[in-house]
Amino acid sequence: MATVEDVLESLTQNQASKYKSIEVQKDIEPQIDPGNLLIVDQNPLELKKLRADKEGYLKSQARDDAQLLFNNIWNLPTERVEEAICVKLPDPTTILPREKPIPKVKTVTRWEQYAQLKGIQRRKKGRMVWDEELKEWRPRWGYKRANDETRDWVIEVPGNADPNEDQFEKRLKAKKERVAKNELQRLRNIARATKSKVPGVGLTPTEKPSKDEVGLALHVAKTSTASLGKFTDKLPKEKEAKRVGKKRKFDPAIGDFKKEKEQQLNIINIMENKKPKLDITKQGR
After folding, report:
1. Per-residue pLDDT of the chain (285 residues; tens, 9 = 90+)
2. How far apart are CA 108 and CA 88, in angstroms?
3. Which residues, at least 6 apart from 140, have a Cβ–Cβ distance to it below 8 Å?
4. Using an 8 Å Cβ cutoff, are 42 and 28 in contact?
């Protein structure tokens, strides 16, 4: 009759045959970098075992290398974080190339500088808000947003406003101005970060427009009429505007026949001088 010790010994042998040992022996000690979770095994492969069972042999080698890596990791200092045992990895020793360049430090905008100075903390707004008109939760921005002004089919005219003024067009114009102002401020933030100036084109406002920019803006405003500024009233003490751009010059249809003859002869001489030069001393193959 089998005793308890015999039963336990047989169970231990069965488990030992099912699971491999955590102790792995290698002829050449692999290079282990726990900071990158990397192991480099330089031991040569056994060709007989590889040809007999390629997949099984490679899995066995991968299992042994992984076991060595885990053995090295569990030798590092550990700590418990929320009922989980964590290991603090050291700095990596193997230098690996990055896929992308290191991101640059984001520059602080004027509003962020003001918020830091005044101690204003940014509070994250929720995406969904309550729409009092429809009595349901809707997105704060975008399609089917809450409190959408475009759903208004009638707008009350203020008491001090022109009764003939289109309030819908006024609201749309105000929105376009807000968008343009935000875009200009965004460009100024980028220019301030890169230490450059926002280019002024046409009537685009700049911080300190130069004399040439003001003159160009005035010329564009005057010549934007149907008559190209011919009937535009001048300002008092306004000087005559200089011509902007280059004017093309064309030769007259009927002019100096002697000059025209010389031009035609020059063209013929150029065409004759462009004949290919043949080397008669060389024999073609």
Report:
1. 557 676 667 766 666 566 777 788 888 888 999 888 899 998 998 888 889 999 999 998 999 999 999 999 888 988 888 888 888 889 888 888 888 888 888 888 888 888 889 888 888 888 898 888 888 898 988 888 888 877 777 888 888 888 888 888 888 888 889 888 888 888 888 887 777 766 555 445 555 677 777 777 777 777 778 777 778 777 777 776 666 666 777 777 777 778 888 888 888 888 877 666 566 566 555
2. 33
3. 125, 126, 127, 128, 129, 146
4. yes
Q: What is the DSSP string of 52-80?
A: H-HHHHHHHHHHHHHHHHHHHHTTS-EEE
Residue 97 dihedral angles phi and psi, to the nearest 5° = -70, 145
What is the rounded CA–CA span in Å between residue 49 and residue 60? 11
Could you give the maximum distance between any two Cα atoms of the chain, in Å? 135
Supply the pTM of this predicted model.
0.35
Between the alpha carbon of residue 268 and those of residues 28, 99, 261, the distances in Å are 84, 61, 11
- Tokens representing residue 84 in the block: 């989980």
Hey, which residues does 130 pair with through a beta bridge?
A: 137
The Cα 199–Cα 211 span in angstroms is: 14
Note the residue count of the chain: 285
Distance CA 6, CA 19 (A): 20
42 neighbors 32 (Cβ within 8 angstroms): no
Determine the 3-state secondary structure of 139 from DSSP. Answer: strand
* CA separation for the pair 111, 228 (Å, rounded): 43
Given the structure tokens 């060389």, which residue do they identify? Answer: 282
Which residues lie closer than 8 Å to 136 by C-beta, 6 or more apart?
130
